[in-house]
Amino acid sequence: MSTTLERPALATSRKGEVAKDKGTLTRSQVRTGWTLLAPALLHSGIFIVIPVIAVLALSLTDYSFGDTWSWVGFGNYTELFRDVDFLASLWHTVLYALVVIPISMAISLAVAIGLNQKIRGIGFFRTAFYIPTVTATVAVATIWLWIYNPGSGLANGFLSLFGFAPNRWLADPGTALGSLMVVGIWQGLGTKIIIYLAALQGVSRDLLESADIDGASRWQKFRNVTLPALGPVQFFVLITSIVGTFQVFDLVYVMTRGGPGSETRVLVLDIYQNAFQDLKLGYASAETVIMMIVIAVFIGVGRLLQRADTND
Amino acid sequence: MRRSVGLTVLATALAVVVSSCGSGVIDKSTDGVPPAEATGTLRVLLPSFPPSNEGRQQFQKVIDDFHKAYPKMKVEPDFATYNNLNEKMSTSIAAGYPYDVMVTGVGWIQPFASKRIFADLGDFGLTPDVIREKSLAALIPAVTYDGRMYGYPLLADTRAVALRKSAFIEAGLDPEKPPTSLADIKIAAEKLTKRDSKGNITRSGFDLASSSGFRQSFTTFLASTGTPLYVGGEPNFDNQAGLDTLLWIKSMINNVQPYGQVNAAQQPLVYSGEAAMGIVGGAVDCSTGGKGIGQKNCDDLKFFRFNSGKEIEYMGGDLASIGSRSRHKQAAWSFIQSLTKPDTLDAMAKLNRKLPAYKDAANSPQAKSNPLSKFVAEGLDKAANENEVPPNWLEMRGNFDIQLTQAVLGQKDPAKVLHNLAGQSR
């Protein structure tokens, strides 16, 4: 038995024009399409394409806001890889991403699973977890500055209850970056939780009930039903987290300004410093290009991992 | 037909957008036009007036004075802070719409002058002799690049040292004979440092006021040995004096003061008793309540200067310049003259807790308003700062802060750090 689908009648335009074949649109359809696309294209052109081209071009110059500039080819790039501040910034950013992304994703998923249960006061908990996301980073950073204050901060006050000696948190080269990571993890939870929560509510109840009938344990249900169903969402969260962590700036700017020394200097802070404090816009542009490449590499790796996971 | 009409409309719209974003908003030049007939907008960037009601009121007085000569010109102020000054300047330059008047600090003139962003004020008759006659001679190096003058001093921002008499007496030291050399300060600071039973510092012996970096304190300590940081744009710190100074700082941190110590009020720690001795700014508010530290606290303070061979006090300042691309240079110079009227400088000094940069600053209302301002005003002839910095000083500021910190915290070898900084300065 076979089913034959009838081809729908070809669209006819206002002027009586007939679309010829698959993928062929009438002129008015094309025009409408471009008209609807135009605002987005204009926006992308002005705020993405032109700046990217400008950055690529500037990265090949020694432009520093003065009257004169010259082409330096790949000179900025070769200089960057001898620049200890840039290398330190790159390393700190990668480290920050490698620690913050998996931990914040794991915590967010765990919390989302908790918030997906039928418990009392669920609305309050959902709001509470989302508040850090909608709070201005400067305000968040200011509160954490107080928490980390070596003299009167909450962190040392709490630890002293258990007999721990006061720590200098942001002033100690050994703990400064870790302290920032804690804030980064805490601040990024809200968005991820909401996304996971939405995805969890879309997990097939039929499959979960089937697993129940088959006698699957909670872990087995999570591992074999819930987690695979979250695959696309995991990828989305991963990509946005990579972009977000690589662009961390305001938190560092307010809390440590990259110090002590350069222990918490991250890429965007280094770019900002080079561009707007040292006035080396060409050099900062080269740094920006490298950051874009590193983000692309990380996203590519994330995509490969996602594909491998899906194939499993 | 309809398509071409659409394209024409789109092109017109784009042209309007581009022209309004671009040169369409830039005025015609008023240079050479009689002041009374000059029209346009004078854009002014300055961190010298806080954007408070009081700051705006004082600034309006400057505008009113300027309007006596240029009645038809508008003044568009941008009340910046020293933290975002460079961002504002660089973005305005990149946008092709630079400020006409820019007020910056010590260390800004040379980098911007070397990029030809500031105009040569010699064209308006400014010479070192004029500054010596009307302003503070100590700020001449700060406004000079390549033998030309690119800025006019508005305010002097000075630093001194203070001790708490009660702490000195308690430690068996004589507050009337303050330690002034680096070696003596260290000995006294170690005696003044208090610790708890676990060895944690509970009162610092000396506040180096270097929570955000050691650049300024290193400059000050080094200058007190008679060694300016730069001479003629060349580094002067990669030597024994520089190394001794850096090692001295290293020996003080976490010995008499924990690294990064700062209080919530961001005030000198000696004011609150969190330190027994330390670097202070150029003014102290002795009033009770509000931001004042109270007369009792004030009476417990004694001020002095560093002297490890040369008695000095650190001096920064607010310096007014004219943008080289300004289309209103004559109006900008007239505006600077309005800014430098004694009454205006007095008001600015009060607002910023600095000293007015006019000849007789020691007799200014600000100098008479509190004991610390009086003290630093009497020592303006002993002023020292980074001296004749190289054109890449803006970059070097950050390098100093990072690398000196790394040396002080034992992450890098101090001698290598100084050698590296000297290499980067060239």
From TrEMBL, chain A:
<keyword id="KW-0813">Transport</keyword>
<feature type="transmembrane region" description="Helical">
    <location>
        <begin position="283"/>
        <end position="305"/>
    </location>
</feature>
<dbReference type="InterPro" id="IPR035906">
    <property type="entry name" value="MetI-like_sf"/>
</dbReference>
<comment type="similarity">
    <text>Belongs to the binding-protein-dependent transport system permease family.</text>
</comment>
<feature type="transmembrane region" description="Helical">
    <location>
        <begin position="227"/>
        <end position="249"/>
    </location>
</feature>
<keyword id="KW-1133">Transmembrane helix</keyword>
<dbReference type="Pfam" id="PF00528">
    <property type="entry name" value="BPD_transp_1"/>
</dbReference>
<keyword id="KW-0472">Membrane</keyword>
<feature type="transmembrane region" description="Helical">
    <location>
        <begin position="176"/>
        <end position="199"/>
    </location>
</feature>
<keyword id="KW-0812">Transmembrane</keyword>
<feature type="domain" description="ABC transmembrane type-1">
    <location>
        <begin position="90"/>
        <end position="302"/>
    </location>
</feature>
<dbReference type="GO" id="GO:0055085">
    <property type="term" value="P:transmembrane transport"/>
</dbReference>
<dbReference type="InterPro" id="IPR051393">
    <property type="entry name" value="ABC_transporter_permease"/>
</dbReference>
<dbReference type="InterPro" id="IPR000515">
    <property type="entry name" value="MetI-like"/>
</dbReference>
<feature type="transmembrane region" description="Helical">
    <location>
        <begin position="94"/>
        <end position="115"/>
    </location>
</feature>
<feature type="transmembrane region" description="Helical">
    <location>
        <begin position="127"/>
        <end position="147"/>
    </location>
</feature>
<protein>
    <submittedName>
        <fullName>Sugar ABC transporter permease</fullName>
    </submittedName>
</protein>
<keyword id="KW-1003">Cell membrane</keyword>
<feature type="transmembrane region" description="Helical">
    <location>
        <begin position="36"/>
        <end position="60"/>
    </location>
</feature>
<dbReference type="GO" id="GO:0005886">
    <property type="term" value="C:plasma membrane"/>
</dbReference>
UniProtKB/TrEMBL annotation, chain B:
<dbReference type="InterPro" id="IPR006059">
    <property type="entry name" value="SBP"/>
</dbReference>
<dbReference type="Pfam" id="PF01547">
    <property type="entry name" value="SBP_bac_1"/>
</dbReference>
<feature type="signal peptide">
    <location>
        <begin position="1"/>
        <end position="22"/>
    </location>
</feature>
<dbReference type="InterPro" id="IPR050490">
    <property type="entry name" value="Bact_solute-bd_prot1"/>
</dbReference>
<protein>
    <submittedName>
        <fullName>Extracellular solute-binding protein</fullName>
    </submittedName>
</protein>
<keyword id="KW-0732">Signal</keyword>
